[in-house]
Amino acid sequence: MIILDTSIWIEFFKVNPSYFETIQKLIEEQQVLAVDCIFGELLQGARNKREREIIKDYWENLPKAGVSGLWIEAGIYSSENKLISKGIGLIDAVIIIALQRNNALLWSLDTKLNSILPEESKFSN
């Protein structure tokens, strides 16, 4: 399974040809795992009702990462690994824990987040 970070979803919704076809194929093959905080960020940035509806439709139809205790575990992980001093916030820590719990890969354009992830945790297009 692959978790698409907010930055990748934005490129998908902009129909950026460098990302769109690969993401569409991953979605069709049910390889994309949705994480609630990522979709929360996407909804926060939606410019109108139509964009919110499109984002919500993807949220409703994708398999979800389990969230029970995720935020607490992410807070502990962040504290233990001093992520905040590395510029990594709690949402990114949640994504890291979701990756670990679901044995998933991350596709992200976030250089700080990518810098702390082992290569085997990253999706390469």
What does this molecule look like?
By secondary structure, the protein is mostly helical. 56% of the residues lie in helices and 5% in strands. The protein has 7 helices and 2 strands; from the N terminus they run E-H-H-H-H-H-H-E-H. The chain has helices at residues 6-13, 20-28, 36-45, 49-61, 70-80, 90-102, 111-116; strands at residues 2-4, 105-107. It has a two-stranded parallel sheet with strand order 1-2. Helix 3 (36-45) packs antiparallel against helix 4 (49-61) and helix 5 (70-80) packs across helix 6 (90-102). The longest helix has 13 residues, at 49-61. The relative contact order is 0.18.
Fill in the keyword field for this structure.
125 residues; mainly alpha; two-stranded parallel ribbon; 7 helices
Quick summary:
The chain is mainly alpha-helical. It has helices spanning 6-13, 20-28, 36-45, 49-61, 70-80, 90-102, 111-116, and strands spanning 2-4, 105-107.
Topology (SSEs and partners):
Layout lengths: L1 E3 L1 H8 L6 H9 L7 H10 L3 H13 L8 H11 L9 H13 L2 E3 L3 H6 L9
Parallel strand pairs: 1-2
Helix pairs in contact: 3-4, 5-6
